[in-house]
Amino acid sequence: MTPIVSVKDVQKTYDGGFEALKGVSLDIRDGEVLALLGPNGAGKTTLISIICGIATATSGQVKVGGHDTVDDYRAARSLIGLVPQEINLEPFETVMNTVTFSRGLFGKPRDDAHMERILRQLSLWDKKDAQTKELSGGMKRRVLIAKALAHEPKVLFLDEPTAGVDVELRRDMWETMKDLKSHGVTIILTTHYIEEAELMADRIGIIAKGEIKLVREKEALMAELGKKQLVVELSERANGIPESLGKYDLTLSDGGSEIVYHYDSRKDRTGITRLLNDLQAAGLQMSDVRTEQSSLEDIFVDLTKGDAR
Ligand SMILES: Nc1ncnc2c1ncn2[C@@H]1O[C@H](COP(=O)(O)OP(=O)(O)OP(=O)(O)O)[C@@H](O)[C@H]1O
């Protein structure tokens, strides 16, 4: 399937000489929710700004729906809705006018039915005549989404939609995102919250120091969570793994005082009982046994260690 957004070798050096993106390539699939996780200053906003045509790449190419974001800016931009991090609404304007105006900016004809549909979908219909300054923080964020959807884009970028919002509002936002996805909108969301990525995303991308470190199906990452390690502490250091234990996935660690067994905890037979018997039969004395599990958080911390700027 042709990706709805294709990013190829995008590099960005800001005027001061700082390299914020170091050759990023990424394909976004039609209809998916992709969560971009990364520490502060990783380059998430820079990447989104380049895709949306707000910033220019120093080199590389971005296409949206097959349209080059530089050569064919208008066509590419009209397929994109952007919900920024900051709330930037006209305080004295009504919700309806705010959203209608956004549609007009894209040269789209007035469409009252579409306006009603998105305002209802975002639970803002009751507030259509209210001035934006009269709205709660959560409603203002939903108005930003309505604005971004006003011109019927195919792809919606949400830059940290739930940063600094309370738990209840975060849940509301998640419901809104699920609803939009069910209506076929492709969603790219940047977040610091691993829980949010786990809950919302079809795929998870990890970005750090201007580089994409990993893009994986969430299910595959979850399967990774199923991978566990059994660490067997030995009473005496071993020089190597005995040949009789060659059939197990074992590594020797901590200078030979631990044997680590990698296994899949979701399987019916983990092989642990057999391994412990075989260790004993091989003459290895065990002093302790513990299990360890890798989580998305571990993977994230591992990949982005020391990368926050
Ligand atoms: N206009 C600019 N001029 C110079 N440097 C900039 C500019 N905008 C961003 N940067 C730098 O580029 C890097 C990436 O910034 P960016 O805003 O893309 O990160 P981010 O991943 O979105 O971070 P956060 O999670 O804090 O929003 C940072 O080191 C930032 O200081």
TrEMBL record:
Question: What GO molecular function terms would the record report?
Answer: ATP binding; ATP hydrolysis activity
State the source organism's domain of life.
Bacteria
Q: Which Pfam families match?
A: ABC_tran
UniProt cross-references to PROSITE patterns, sorted A to Z: ABC_TRANSPORTER_1 (PS00211), ABC_TRANSPORTER_2 (PS50893)
Cite the entry's keywords alphabetically: ATP-binding, Nucleotide-binding, Transport
Q: Which CDD domains match?
A: ABC_DR_subfamily_A
Can you give the residue ranges of the ABC transporter domain? 5-234
Any idea what this protein is called?
ABC-2 type transport system ATP-binding protein
